[in-house]
Design brief:
With about 200 residues, the chain is mainly alpha-helical. Helices cover about 40% and strands about 5% of the residues. The protein has 2 domains: about 70 residues, no CATH class; about 80 residues, no CATH class. The chain has 7 helices and 2 strands; from the N terminus they run E-E-H-H-H-H-H-H-H. The protein has a two-stranded antiparallel ribbon. It is elongated. The chain starts with 9 loop residues before the first strand and ends in a 15-residue tail after the last helix.
C-alpha cells in the first residue's frame, strides 16, 4: 500500500486493461473458493477471476497465469513477523518459519473476532462496509489492530509459550484458553509439567 497512490481498481495484464473488484468481501469470497477442495486448480482460478473481474472477458488459455498475477499482485497476505523486545529493550531473536508450531490467525475462522475488533478499535461495522472497503484498507486496519482488541488478545493467547516464571495455575489457565481459541486443523501445545 502506498499513500501517494490510489487504491487499485484496474490493472493492465498482457496489454489488456481490466477493472478489478478488490472490495474486502469479494476477496473473502475468493478465499472461500480457494478453500473448496472439490474444485480443480483451473476451476478455482476461473471462478476467482469471474468474481474479481466481474465477468470481463480474458484469454481462457491464460487463466492460470492471469490468476497467479492477480493473486500475487493484489490479494496475497504478507505476514510480517513483529519484532519482540526483552525487558531491557533489546530485540529478541526472530523465530524461523520452520519452527512455527501453527497458525496464529485465520481470516475465515476468526471472522467474528475480526468484526468485533474493528468495532472496538475503529467503530467500523464491516457489514456496512461490504462492497465499499478496499482489500488493502481492510488489511491495513487488520494489521494495525491495537493490543487491547479481542483479535490481538486471541493471537497473544495462541502464541503464548510457558516460561519458568509462570506458576502452575497461570499455565493451566493459558492451556485452557489455547484450547478454547485454537484454530481448526492446528494442534494445541502441551505444556511440560516439569518445565521450571
Amino acid at each position: 500500500m502506498r499513500l501517494n497512490r490510489g487504491l487499485v481498481t484496474s490493472f493492465i495484464y498482457d496489454g489488456k486493461a481490466y477493472d478489478i473488484d478488490l472490495t474486502f468481501d469479494t476477496v473473502l469470497t475468493v478465499f472461500d473458493v480457494l478453500d473448496d477442495k472439490r474444485l480443480q486448480n483451473e476451476e478455482s482460478a476461473e471462478i476467482c477471476l469471474d468474481l474479481l473481474l466481474q465477468g470481463q472477458k480474458y484469454d481462457k488459455t491464460k487463466t492460470i497465469d492471469l490468476w497467479n498475477y492477480v493473486y500475487k499482485s493484489f490479494i496475497h497476505i504478507e505476514v510480517k513477523q513483529a519484532i519482540e523486545y526483552d525487558l531491557e529493550g533489546n530485540p529478541m531473536p526472530i523465530r524461523d518459519d520452520d519452527e512455527d508450531d501453527g497458525a496464529l490467525f485465520d481470516i475465515v475462522q476468526d471472522a467474528e473476532f475480526i468484526y468485533a475488533s474493528f468495532r472496538q478499535a475503529y467503530n467500523i461495522n464491516l457489514f456496512q462496509e461490504r462492497g465499499k472497503m478496499h482489500w488493502k484498507e481492510f488489511q491495513a486496519l487488520l494489521n494495525g489492530l491495537p493490543s487491547d482488541t479481542i483479535m490481538q488478545r486471541i493471537i497473544s493467547i495462541r502464541s503464548w509459550e510457558p516460561s519458568k516464571h509462570d506458576d502452575a495455575e497461570y499455565k493451566k489457565e493459558m492451556e485452557k484458553l489455547q484450547r478454547k481459541y485454537a484454530l481448526e486443523g492446528t494442534e494445541s501445545k502441551e505444556v511440560d509439567e516439569g518445565y521450571g
